[in-house]
Amino acid sequence: MARGARPSARLLLLSLGLVLLYFSSGSSVGVADAQKTWCVAKPSASNDILSLNLNYACSQVSCAVIQKGGPCYYPDNLVSRAAVAMNLYYAANGRHPWNCYFNNSALVVQSDPSYGSCTYY
């Protein structure tokens, strides 16, 4: 294929078909073997957005771990609570990148953000 040339629709469909076949064939290497990821709040996210994210995530999943007495209650701040809630939502919905978008206020990370008794799942 010449540099800058666009691939044909047939080539794209063939590639997509091979990818789908690979993942549906029960291959020993696949999505389950991918490195685990977590969803956390971007440091630059505003408190207003984090508050919306927290309310939305907790309307979809149980946020008991960030309630008073829960293992993720401390530190008692919006960024920490929103990050835990956003990750709970992300994990409950399949860990897809689109489940960690939150209006571009979140990041998918490969380092476990768990701390103390607070485990990010």
Automatic annotation (TrEMBL):
Signal sequence extent: 1-26
InterPro entries reported for this sequence: X8, X8_dom_prot
A cellular component term, taken from the record's GO annotations: plasmodesma
Gene3D superfamilies in UniProt: 1.20.58.1040
Positions of the X8 domain: 37-120
Domain of life, per lineage: Eukaryota
PANTHER family per the UniProt record, alphabetical: BETA-1,3 GLUCANASE, CARBOHYDRATE-BINDING X8 DOMAIN SUPERFAMILY PROTEIN
Protein name, per record: X8 domain-containing protein
Organism encoding this protein: Miscanthus lutarioriparius
Source lineage: Eukaryota, Viridiplantae, Streptophyta, Embryophyta, Tracheophyta
